[in-house]
Design goal:
Elements: H1 9-13, H2 32-38, H3 43-54, H4 59-66, H5 70-98
Helix pairs in contact: 2-5, 3-5, 4-5
């Protein structure tokens, strides 16, 4: 089920820390820092994030593509977002202390 017009999938879920649209309203408004932090997630988790938040695919379709159950897609997304949150938080904290 697609989100209403003008609303991004992450907004519908209401998940804190989920990627949001860029200034132009399109998905993929992430920064270089977001992309760099994603490199520290396992490949399948990174794939799930890209497929879900950048390509806006539904969980059953992502599950078919990565070869797992839809519930496992949600687990991968949850864990990947947790990793990103922790890495970005640590990076921002380090920036605050350095200057």
């Amino acid at each position: 089920m697609a989100p209403p017009p003008g609303q991004h999938r992450g907004d519908r879920r209401g998940g804190a820390g989920a990627p949001r649209p860029g200034a132009d309203g399109r998905p993929g408004g992430g920064t270089r820092r977001d992309v760099g932090a994603a490199r520290h997630t396992p490949r399948v988790q990174r794939a799930v994030l890209v497929l879900r938040y950048y390509l806006d695919l539904p969980d059953p379709e992502i599950a078919d593509l990565v070869g797992c159950a839809p519930a496992t897609v949600r687990v991968h997304a949850f864990r990947a977002l947790g990793t990103l949150r922790a890495r970005l938080s640590a990076h921002l904290t380090a920036e605050d202390h350095s200057g």
